[in-house]
């Protein structure tokens, strides 16, 4: 029947290619990050061991493959499987077969990574975890090269971008006054969780430009998302705005794969003719260019429509949340973490407080002792060091260190971390950039709190320091393995 042809979107083949390969690439990064960090943070001998976490629950509400048994070996097997499947999807191999092949591949990634997130505790409590899960589930129904891209699934991916952008915009408008008086970016580039190599330059821009940045952000997040549903070429232009603004966030900070996911998903609104007009190498008509005669089997149409109806039904709660006075940020409304609420930086931290960990080999610790500072890969420490670009790779320990002064340094995992340093735990030390004792165990460690700010251009020319830091206090005094670990007062 002719009316069934509406469900096919042959003019979005380029979008499908970007969506499938891009989301798969971010899954690859996520599994690699987990493989490198999970055992030290959450493994059998980790800071928050998963076996202890599972033992505390007689019934797990959220699904995970580790519900009955966890081991570091099993975790590595899950990551290895995820890496292989992700790599195959990036290469486009499953997409060459029937549509059920990439469907199974993406659903496998979704289930494997959900198993990790649901036991990841505070180290996996970030909004981009559920974003990756929702994106993986949704793009699973985009089909393969043998079928036309399904229009309803593309619309639902645009709906995901809308929730991601508009939700963040509404959180800001309802949040701190700095977003309404246009002063938020006086502080954000300096106080964000993990600055990048260009963050200092962005911070030092004139304040009028920062105010223009905030206005541009409000337009990009509160107006542009509605245009994603407009006819072409308006929708493609709106998607381009999303891509450009997200690239600026990539350049000025490190937010794991959050910004890269927004960029990839925005391609759901870019049609082949518009993409061809910008880059002529992209075919305006893929079917004509490849000479393929594709048809959507009825059974596949039924599957995509069933998935679309499911996601549409689950959209009620996040839609209501968008316009709620008590809007939730980064919240899931079901155990499968599908069709979630997103948002970030409802308020901006005005000062940057850094937690610095030091150790000494001296028997009797004091101010005159030889205290040596541990270096982290991503978070600021050495005042002369240029912050590195890590995104889309996620440094979980460094991110949690940023939250300590905002909450409390007296966190269970942080005391476990100090104990690992005192024991010179090799697995933990590999997560750091610099071990000042070259594998030896310090006798004492202490924790000090510093105020950090970016050096002005004049200060940098005079000292070569990119940061200026001032000692505030010592929240955890010298402690050793000979003393009981616990809350220090």
UniProtKB/TrEMBL annotation:
<feature type="transmembrane region" description="Helical">
    <location>
        <begin position="234"/>
        <end position="251"/>
    </location>
</feature>
<dbReference type="Pfam" id="PF06762">
    <property type="entry name" value="LMF1"/>
</dbReference>
<feature type="transmembrane region" description="Helical">
    <location>
        <begin position="153"/>
        <end position="171"/>
    </location>
</feature>
<protein>
    <submittedName>
        <fullName>Lipase maturation factor family protein</fullName>
    </submittedName>
</protein>
<dbReference type="InterPro" id="IPR057433">
    <property type="entry name" value="LMF1/2_C"/>
</dbReference>
<comment type="similarity">
    <text>Belongs to the lipase maturation factor family.</text>
</comment>
<feature type="transmembrane region" description="Helical">
    <location>
        <begin position="74"/>
        <end position="93"/>
    </location>
</feature>
<keyword id="KW-0256">Endoplasmic reticulum</keyword>
<feature type="domain" description="Lipase maturation factor 1/2 C-terminal">
    <location>
        <begin position="338"/>
        <end position="476"/>
    </location>
</feature>
<dbReference type="Pfam" id="PF25179">
    <property type="entry name" value="LMF1_C"/>
</dbReference>
<keyword id="KW-1133">Transmembrane helix</keyword>
<keyword id="KW-0812">Transmembrane</keyword>
<feature type="domain" description="Lipase maturation factor 1/2 N-terminal">
    <location>
        <begin position="124"/>
        <end position="274"/>
    </location>
</feature>
<dbReference type="InterPro" id="IPR009613">
    <property type="entry name" value="LMF"/>
</dbReference>
<keyword id="KW-0472">Membrane</keyword>
<feature type="transmembrane region" description="Helical">
    <location>
        <begin position="258"/>
        <end position="279"/>
    </location>
</feature>
<dbReference type="InterPro" id="IPR057434">
    <property type="entry name" value="LMF1/2_N"/>
</dbReference>
<feature type="transmembrane region" description="Helical">
    <location>
        <begin position="299"/>
        <end position="319"/>
    </location>
</feature>
């Amino acid at each position: 029947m002719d009316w069934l042809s509406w469900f096919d979107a042959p003019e979005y083949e380029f979008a499908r290619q970007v969506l499938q390969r891009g989301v798969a690439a971010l899954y690859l990064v996520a599994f690699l990050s987990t493989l490198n960090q999970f055992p030290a943070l959450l493994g059998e001998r980790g800071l928050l061991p998963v076996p202890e976490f599972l033992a505390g629950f007689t019934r797990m509400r959220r699904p995970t493959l580790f519900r009955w048994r966890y081991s570091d070996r099993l975790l590595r097997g899950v990551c290895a499987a995820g890496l292989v499947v992700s790599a195959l999807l990036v290469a486009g191999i499953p997409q060459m077969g029937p549509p059920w092949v990439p469907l199974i591949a993406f659903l496998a990634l979704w289930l494997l990574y959900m198993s990790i997130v649901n036991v990841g505790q505070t180290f996996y409590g970030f909004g981009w975890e559920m974003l990756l899960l929702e994106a993986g589930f949704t793009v699973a129904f985009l089909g393969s090269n043998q079928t036309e891209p399904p229009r309803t699934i593309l619309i639902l991916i645009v709906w995901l971008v809308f929730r991601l952008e508009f939700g963040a915009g509404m959180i800001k408008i309802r949040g701190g006054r700095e977003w309404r008086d246009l002063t938020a970016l006086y502080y954000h580039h300096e106080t964000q969780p993990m600055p990048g190599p260009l963050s200092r330059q962005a911070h030092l821009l004139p304040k009028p430009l920062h105010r223009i940045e905030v206005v541009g952000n409000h337009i990009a997040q509160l107006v542009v998302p509605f245009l994603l549903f407009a006819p072409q070429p308006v929708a493609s232009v709106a998607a381009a705005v999303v891509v450009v603004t997200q690239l600026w966030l990539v350049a000025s900070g490190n937010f794991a794969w959050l910004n890269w996911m927004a960029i990839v998903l925005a391609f759901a609104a870019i049609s082949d003719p518009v993409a061809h007009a910008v880059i002529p190498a992209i075919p305006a008509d893929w079917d004509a260019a490849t000479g393929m005669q594709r048809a959507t089997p009825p059974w596949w149409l039924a599957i995509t429509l069933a998935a679309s109806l499911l996601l549409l039904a689950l959209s009620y709660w996040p839609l209501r949340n968008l316009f709620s006075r008590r809007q939730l940020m980064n919240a899931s409304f079901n155990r499968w973490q599908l069709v979630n609420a997103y948002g970030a930086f409802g308020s901006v931290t005005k000062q940057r407080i850094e937690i610095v960990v030091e150790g000494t080999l001296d028997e009797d610790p004091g101010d005159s002792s030889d205290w040596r500072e541990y270096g982290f890969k991503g978070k600021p420490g050495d005042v002369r060091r240029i912050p590195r670009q890590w995104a889309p790779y996620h440094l979980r320990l460094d991110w949690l260190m940023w939250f300590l002064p905002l909450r409390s340094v007296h966190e269970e995992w942080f005391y476990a971390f100090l104990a690992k340093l005192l024991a010179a735990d090799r697995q933990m030390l590999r997560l750091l950039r610099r071990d000042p004792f070259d594998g030896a165990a310090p006798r004492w460690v202490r924790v000090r709190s510093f105020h950090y700010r970016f050096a002005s251009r004049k200060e940098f020319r005079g000292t070569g320091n990119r940061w200026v830091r001032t000692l505030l206090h010592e929240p955890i005094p010298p402690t050793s393995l000979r003393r009981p670990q616990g809350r220090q007062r």
